[in-house]
Design goal:
The structure is a single chain. The protein contains 7 helices and 3 strands, in the order αααααβββαα. The protein has a 3-stranded antiparallel sheet, with no helix packed on it. It has 134 residues and is mainly α. Helix 1 (3-18) crosses helix 2 (22-33), helix 2 packs antiparallel against helix 3 (38-45) and helix 5 (65-81) crosses helix 7. A hairpin with a 4-residue loop joins strand 1 (86-88) and strand 2. Helices cover 69% and strands 6% of the residues. The structure holds zinc ion. Zinc ion binds next to helix 6.
């Protein structure tokens, strides 16, 4: 697979987990690996069916479903260990890594830009996992 696409896919998935959206990784696994239908997945994950279809479609067109399938299948357990840094404290969304209110920021880009080191560290961990499978 093209290394650039792989790196971009890993980055996107890591940031998604750091945002607290690990459910989306589960959705990709259920769709790409377990071959469940969008209806079954939306029922199981309590996720709107159209949101789910749009997400899977967008991710597949960005990175290719082959790249995504390999990454999700081989690294699924690692994704589940990524702790969200954006959390709801009962009143507002907070970024735990820098203590800023997430309501003021666009979380995906905030994590991508401000917490680059953390994102890179997880990407390295995932790459090791991919290499380890070979
Ligand atoms: Zn932050």
């Amino acid at each position: 697979m093209p290394p650039r696409k792989l790196k971009e896919a890993l980055e996107n998935l890591v940031i998604t987990c750091l945002e607290g959206e690990v459910r989306k990784i589960e959705a990709l696994k259920l769709y790409l690996i377990d071959n469940l239908s969008p209806s079954e997945i939306s029922g199981r994950l309590k996720m709107n069916k159209n949101t789910l279809k749009n997400y899977v479609g967008r991710m597949s067109s960005l990175y290719g479903s082959n790249v995504l399938s390999v990454v999700i299948e081989e690294c699924y357990e690692v994704f589940l260990t990524i702790k969200p840094i954006v959390v709801w404290n009962g009143k507002e969304w907070l970024c735990l890594a820098c203590n800023r209110r997430a309501a003021l920021i666009y979380t995906y880009n905030h994590i991508k830009v401000k917490h680059r080191d953390l994102v890179e560290a997880y990407i390295e961990k995932l790459k090791e996992c991919l290499v380890g499978q070979r």
